[in-house]
Amino acid sequence: MSQSAPVTNTDNTIPYAEARDAMMSTYAPPETVFVRGEGAYVYTQDGDKYLDFFAGIAVNCLGHCHPDLVSTLQAQAGQLWHMSNAYRVPQGETLAHKLAELSGLGKVFFTNSGTESVECGLKMMRRYHFDHGHPEKNRIIGASSAFHGRTFAAICAAGNPVHTKGFAREDEGYDHAPFNDLAAIEALISDKTAGIIVEPVQGEGGIHVASKEYLEGLRALCDKHGALLMFDEVQCGIGRTGKVFGFQHASVQPDIIALAKGLGGGFPVGACVASNEVGASMVVGTHGSTYGGNPLAMAVASKVMEIVAQPEFLNQVSETADKLHTALNGLVEKYPTILSEVRGAGLMVGLRCKSADANGALLGLARDNKILLTKAGDNVLRLLPPLIIDESHIAEAVEKLDQALASYAATL
Hints:
Layout: H1 16-21, E1 34-38, E2 41-44, E3 49-52, H2 55-58, H3 67-77, H4 90-103, E4 107-111, H5 114-131, E5 139-143, H6 152-158, H7 161-164, E6 174-177, H8 182-188, E7 193-198, E8 201-202, E9 208-209, H9 212-225, E10 228-232, E11 256-259, E12 270-274, H10 276-279, H11 295-308, H12 311-334, E13 339-345, E14 348-353, H13 358-368, E15 371-372, E16 374-376, E17 380-383, H14 391-409
Parallel strand pairs: 3-15, 5-6, 5-7, 7-10, 10-11
Antiparallel strand pairs: 1-2, 2-3, 4-12, 8-9, 11-12, 13-14, 14-17, 16-17
Helix pairs in contact: 3-11, 4-11, 12-14, 13-14
């Protein structure tokens, strides 16, 4: 099919208002419907072409319909879809060994999503201390501006009042300190602290990058107080920062890592990876997942890791990221009254805006110019392109963003 060929979507026949009426109002998407993707582009049912620097919130790490992922999924779909973990899934066993090797840890539990991976890790923190005779060590420290998912434990760990309102009590066993503030974390640690959870790069919070000193300091604090260190790599992991894992930019080894998003390249899959000692607490009956680690997910995730973990691939991500950051800094210089800085790590990039809520306005204007982005906290416009983009995509993105910024400037 030609990239410019219109696609007729015969399934989308219900008017927008009526179609959305049957769905809970947890999202407010525009009327645009995308029906096909290829590489760094998506296409509407009318054949309009958009540059995708959103990637389903850092999910489509190899772009849309990567031929290797498509063929892998098709081959597995013709063999076996689901068995449940009541029986062995050899592809999962192989992938677990790969993730354990790459992370320097030893045990893996497969999930369907990032928030489930986080939930598994939070449970593990408490269970580990329970098994070692310290049930009182059940409090977990998180960072402000964090996002760990939408399950109950995940929203409590992040502590964002917008997400906990109406769901959680004032104290569910979690404490919070400002991100990148080691002294504030240390002040919260007590003999009841089970562990600490942070994102090496905060995504939803505004593309805040943890310093090496902060991450290494967290490890030292956990060692000193007998607590566990967990990194939420759901968004910043799987090559997005130019390393397989974001924490690998520092000299630090966590006890637990939560993964998802890019791990499946678009197929729903997540993983909670832990050290042998900590993972040993999760025995038969302590945790489970009906779909977690199913053959379809394991086949696709294995192919993703086969591609992403290659040194040449990661080097290319870093080189491309440097060029993107340089190009975006040019926009900051051109629009100093609108933009204040470029920040982030690798291809996890934020354009911080100066005026209140400018990120929301620019998000719509960018979409009008056929580029998809998303926004984040701290008035940030967030760019999460596929890891396979090249210089031509960067040039196109900057041109479209320039047009959006010019339109916004005209309204000021």
